[in-house]
Amino acid sequence: MNIYDGEVPREDEVFTTLHKTDAIEIVRIISGEVATPKEFIDTKDEWVVLLKGKAKLQMDERIYELEAGDTLFIPANTSHFLLSVTPGSLWLAVHYDPKRCG
After folding, report:
1. Those residues with Cβ within 8 angstroms of residue 81's Cβ, 6 or more apart along the chain or in another chain
2. pLDDT tens by residue, 38-80
3. Predicted local distance difference test score (pLDDT) of residue 36
4. Using CB atoms within 10 A of its CB, is residue 60 exposed (0-12), middle (13-18) or buried (19+)?
5. CA-based torsion, 94, 55, 71, 60: positive or negative
6. Distance (Å, whole) CA 29 – CA 14
7. pTM for this one?
8. CA 35, CA 62: separation in Å to the nearest integer?
9. Within 13 Å and on the Cβ side, how many CA atoms surround 90?
10. Three-point CA angle 34, 78, 26, nearest 5°
């Protein structure tokens, strides 16, 4: 699989699990037209890298303006909002439980 191969959805986002164990999940996300703001709360720690595109997120009252190559760590159970994203943006997200990853 080539991570850059994938159809851009007309609306919302497409989440594709690339690898999953009890402790970790690696997900490719392709963004289409997303109704924003969109809230997320994950039960595991999350590290994301924006591989292509631009996005604006809010976490703990701070705004993050991401461009290709930027990364962000989001602690478990932390409310965060996708404020805007360019259609065709490509993300790689790693969700993990630090207690199980050693």
Report:
1. 36, 37, 38, 39, 40, 57, 58, 59
2. 999 999 999 999 999 999 999 999 999 999 999 999 999 999 9
3. 86
4. exposed
5. negative
6. 6
7. 0.92
8. 20
9. 11
10. 65
Q: Tell me: pLDDT of 20 over 70.
A: yes
- Domains annotated for the chain, with CATH where assigned, are 13-101 (2.60.120.10)
- For residue 80, count other CB atoms closer than 10 A to its CB: 22
Sheet with 62-67, side-by-side order of all strands: 38-40, 80-85, 54-59, 62-67
Q: Please state, in angstroms and rounded to a whole number, the distance separating the CA atoms of residues 51 and 42.
A: 21
State yes or no: pLDDT of 101 exceeds 80: no
